[in-house]
Write a structure and sequence with these properties.
heterodimer; A: 379 residues; alpha+beta; 8 helices; 18 strands; 29% helix; B: 136 residues; mainly beta; 5-stranded antiparallel beta sheet; 4-stranded antiparallel beta sheet; globular
Chain lengths: 379, 136
């Protein structure tokens, strides 16, 4: 996911001017909001025209800024953060990039200075190609620094910094210029490897999604055809897992009948519980593995089987296998845990809550209602 | 413990702390724009069924619905219906006792007076390895 850069020529000009004339210990402050997070960057001039930049944000658990994250001069920008964990990137790198001191790489902007009519885009907003097409007077569109610039996008494993078209996982002491060109000659192996891993993970994710979407579309097409002709012979029980819409899935479950589905599937009941007089079963089902280069043909997946208390229809919905799918920690092994995940309550669990959950499950009981708020009414 | 009501995939949680509620939904719009049924308060729309969880028009003058303000970068690619944040309420204030929430496939539920946050349950798509809100 890429981040929008609101390029601010005035801020760039003002900051570069300050860099040129500031005396030792003088400071300069800039701020930026990312979502609900307010980040403040303040620069303090040191020796030889080099300023250290510190950043603090509203959500940091430390109120003091700690060590400097950037070392800046009129010729170069150097990332000097000692904390290289990927969440630190969010605060110090993404925030800095989004300050708008350098424009987005190879993007066009509207030059409001030469526009005497109302163009519905702010001058700091990087236009998409569709938006460029929609502007009739092309003379108002310009590329700052001849298209040079930076960008940042988040992939599952790390943030990738785009330095004038070259994407890398940031590394300590990397240095680039005010046009976004990488000055550092040797990129550390750790950064190179992490970048390669990022691209691989991204390719794999896209491939998985593409296959899943294609499979869903194919089965939806078959389902619609079956409804139209009242002939379901083209559909198989296993097609249920490819459908992304619950109504489609329920329709297929109704057609095959839950008993027949259960007979055909390779699954076991992990846990069952009755909540508010409604019966729930947490199933572990073997489903086709669409992961690229998958060694196994199938893998286990959690599904929650439940009944609509009003219509009596049986629903099956996917539930994550783990509380944290990234780190694969805290397996979801009970109905209460599955419902808490489904309702989004698990996002609010503290480490203490998770430890309590582990104790409940080790004792063979379901989680406590303090951790999963049971609705007073379910229909 | 939280007081909660559930109708199908919609979870309605009572928010007792008025100040916290006001702060949480401070930037939200009170207006209901582009409602499919002009005078109803909709909590969730159905993508395939077209069914919705909603309060009947005759009761909606006693309900304030809070909608996230849309900016021009917002889009929702997870649904064929596009951006629906200005139709679906993210929170409600029920100003009178016992308002009734209806849905075509679920029994009506009665919601007492108070402030509520709205959440749609999520599911895990094991094929795509990603979680998303449940759609019907």
């Amino acid at each position: 996911m890429g981040s929008q850069i609101n390029y601010s020529p005035k801020r760039r000009e003002s900051f570069l001017k300050w860099l040129a004339i500031a005396k030792k210990d003088e400071s300069y402050t800039m701020d930026y909001d990312i979502g609900h997070r307010h980040t403040i960057f303040f620069a303090i001039m040191g020796n030889k025209g080099k300023a250290k930049i510190y950043n603090v944000n509203k959500w940091a658990w430390k109120s003091e800024p700690g060590s400097a994250t950037w070392l800046i001069s009129k010729d170069s920008i150097q990332w000097v953060s000692s904390n290289e964990n990927k969440w630190n990137y969010t605060d110090s790198i993404r925030g800095f990039v989004r300050l708008g001191l350098i424009p987005a790489y190879n993007k066009s902007y509207v030059n409001k200075k030469i526009v005497d009519k109302d163009i519905p885009y702010p001058d700091n907003y990087a236009l998409t190609s569709k938006e460029i097409d929609s502007i009739k007077d092309k003379s108002v569109i310009y590329k700052p620094l001849d298209g040079d610039g930076i960008g940042i996008r988040y992939l599952r494993q790390a943030h990738l910094l785009n330095l004038n078209g070259k994407e890398i996982v940031p590394f300590r002491n990397m240095k680039f210029d005010w046009n976004g060109n990488l000055i550092t000659k040797i990129i550390p192996a750790a950064s190179k490897n992490a970048t390669a891993e990022c691209f691989k993970e991204d390719r794999d994710t896209k491939s998985r999604r593409r296959k899943a979407n294609a499979a869903n579309n194919k089965i939806v097409y078959k389902l619609k055809k079956a409804q139209k002709n009242n002939d379901y012979s083209d559909l198989k029980v296993n097609d249920i897992w490819y459908l992304t819409n619950v109504t489609h899935r329920t329709e297929l479950i109704n057609h095959f009948g839950m008993e027949n589905i259960i007979k055909e599937l390779d699954y076991y009941v992990k846990h069952k519980n009755t909540i508010n007089n409604n019966e729930y079963e947490l199933l572990s089902v073997k489903i086709p593995d669409l992961t690229p280069n998958a060694i196994e043909q199938e893998r286990e997946a959690n599904y929650l089987k439940m009944t609509n208390p009003t219509t009596g229809e049986i629903h099956i919905e996917g539930v994550a296998n783990f509380l944290s799918n990234w780190s694969e920690t805290d397996p979801i092994n009970s109905v209460g845990m599955a419902l808490a995940w489904r309702n989004g309550d698990t996002n609010d669990w503290s480490e203490q809550d998770k430890s309590q959950v582990r104790s409940y499950l080790a004792e063979g009981s379901d989680i406590d209602t303090d951790l999963y708020a049971i609705p007073r009414t379910i229909t | 413990m939280k007081i909660r009501y559930q109708q199908g995939d919609v979870i309605i949680t009572k928010e007792d702390d008025q100040a916290k509620f006001n702060k949480e939904y401070e930037g939200y719009s009170f207006e209901r724009k582009e409602n499919v049924k002009k005078d109803s308060v909709v909590l969730a729309l159905g993508e395939v069924t077209g069914h919705s969880h909603q309060f009947k028009p005759e009761e909606t003058d006693m309900i304030v619905s809070y909608h996230q303000k849309r900016n021009r970068y917002d889009h929702d690619s997870s649904t064929s219906m596009g951006y629906i944040g200005d139709i679906e309420a993210q929170a409600i204030s029920v100003l009178d006792e016992d308002m009734t929430l209806y849905h075509e496939e679920h029994a009506p539920i009665t919601i007492p007076k108070g402030n509520y946050s709205i959440r749609i349950v999520r599911e895990f798509d094991h094929m795509a390895q990603t979680s998303r809100r449940v759609w019907d």
